[in-house]
Amino acid sequence: MRITQKGKKMNSKNQQKKKEIDWMITLVPLALIVALCIVFFFAPEQSNQVLGQIRFLFGDTFGTYYLVIGLGIFFLSLFLAGSKYGNIVLGKPDEKPKYSFFAWGCMMFTCGLAADILFYSFSEWILYATDPHIAELGSIQDWAGVFPLFHWSFIPWGFYLVLAVAFGFMLHVRKRNRQKYSEACRPILGKQTDGIGGRLIDLLAVFALLAGTATTFSVATPLMAEIIGELFHMEVSRTVINIIILLITCCVYTYSLLHGFKGISILAKVCIYLFFGLLAFVLLFGGETRYIIETGFSSLGKMIQNFIGLSTYTDPMRTTNFPQNWTIYYWAYWMVWCVAAPFFIGSISRGRTVRQTIIGGYGFGVGSTLVSFIILGNYSMGKQISGAIDFISQYNENGDLYHLIVSMIKTMPCAPLIMVVVLVTMVAFYATSFDSIALTASCYSYRKLEDGEEPAKGIQLMWCILLILLPIALLFAESSMNSLQSVSIVAAFPIGIVIVMIAVSFLKDAKLYLEELQGGKAHGEEKKENR
């Protein structure tokens, strides 16, 4: 009898869980992504052409829109950290942080920047060195190392951190049980949050999430295949690349299934140790120590000195289309990643103040990013400038960045070991990033999730599979870097409006919260006086 009652309770609980699933948010993106995958697979050339036309409309015609939002969000982050809002604790007023600063920083950094940070750290200076805009500004030595620092530092992390405190406030202070983009807009949308407006925002958010994941996996995964091919002396086909992606997905899901947040924390720490171990080795034993330090210091100063000019440059005469090709793409790239990473950062920031979250995020996130680009980028640039190896000519000959990065690593001492470390670190980056993305996406499948409640493992598995379909389709379509960028630029356009709405909503709700706290204190003091 007891077993029967227990079974009934379990069935009732499962049925209740099924009722809580938001099938519209779950199935519409699934159908859309499957349709896109079919189109990319069977009509790759036509798909890339259409993407290019749409990218031109958003990135070229409305490019200033992305630049204004990026600079505005950065200034807002500084305002929040320095104002009365910075004192707000993401939780109860006397609550302490759940994670140590190091554990928190590791999880934040690895969820916010996937394996593409290694790909771009090695190679991005080459992309700028071969761009006509660098010749307009001056020399490769003066400017090729500046733009990687600009495109990966303050404005990108500004997007993450402003939204992270907004989501953290929503989850830990207001205790809202709808972990969705639309819920963060409730202070200004009101009842519309539960209507068509809210549904549309959530659908846009999920599509942007899928687009951001597709771009990241499609850009960086072939480097892993190239390294494997070099280590084992074998030709690597597209099929092998796709197998690699599937294996990573499988491993990530299994790890997440068994260990949850604790597992993510451990994996993030391992990733950070490998990452900084690699950087230390290249800096100390690569033979370019002085050049790396001095050029990095100079590039950082030039970036800070010219920050406003770089943030507002639009190339109105279209002499090189540099901002359209790079700055606008990057701001769009960070916007689509803002659907997942800030939710995760907000979740793990419980007990920290808004000020601690923003300043700590800039310190750990931006600091680690800058160190990566300064060391790995300036190592190979030092070889180029000294005339030891002509990486630019190699790139101009075949345009293959993946093979070029392997060539760069082969100039280092203990090159095979370095390749193994890079490969393992990329897998670890992918794992921690994918855990946070899958967890965030899974939350979208539920109408409500109580504080501390996690989505069902079956829903997480479904999202793991869904998140990997579009990258595989893009790889089969042999999409160019330009086409991959187009996916992010298109998806980011509507998301930019939502990001502004979330920022305004947070300011409105946070102001009300501070007034409530002040009113509560005044009421408490009045009681004391009456006593």
From TrEMBL:
Keywords: Cell membrane, Membrane, Transmembrane, Transmembrane helix, Transport
Regions crossing the membrane: 21-43, 63-81, 101-122, 154-173, 200-220, 240-258, 270-293, 328-345, 357-376, 417-446, 458-477, 489-507
Domain of life: Bacteria
Subcellular location, record wording: Cell membrane
Topology versus the membrane: Multi-pass membrane protein
Homology family: Belongs to the BCCT transporter (TC 2.A.15) family.
Lineage, broadest ranks: Bacteria, Bacillati, Bacillota, Clostridia, Lachnospirales
Short name of any one Pfam family annotated for the protein: BCCT
Protein name stated in the entry: BCCT family transporter
